[in-house]
Design brief:
The chain is mainly α. The chain has one domain. Helix content is 80%, strand content 0%. It contains 5 helices and no strands. The chain is globular, with a radius of gyration of 17 Å. The two termini are 12 Å apart.
Amino acid sequence: MSRTAIAFVVSPLWTPLAAGLFFGVAVLTDAAQIHADDVRLIASAVVISALLAYFGMFALGYPAFRYLRARGMTSVWRAMGVGFVAGAVMWALVAFWLGLLKYGGVTPALYQSYNEVSLPAELLGLIIGATFWLIARPDRAL
């Protein structure tokens, strides 16, 4: 398996790790009151975030990687920038779909909630881009 393929498989794993830690801390703050539903919530968050991360990686990251590599633009800063933008785009899609499910459409409250919590998703994308670059090392010859 090539370094690039390994990078595409491994780097999105930051997202389910972050989701598991976030929901684990948020839900399991009192060890005496842990319920099976809490564990299912954490497991669901991890699985859904992994699916979204891999979707984003292959829908946004792969085309960007091919484009940048073909033009010789393989610096770590570009990979981090692509990750940052991909994180923003994926969060916008998640916020849009959650808004449709919760509010029946896009509302001002949705815009406000997007702006309040988009930075962690963008920073997570940046970390994924940097991890991808560290594993794949597209700046080096194959």
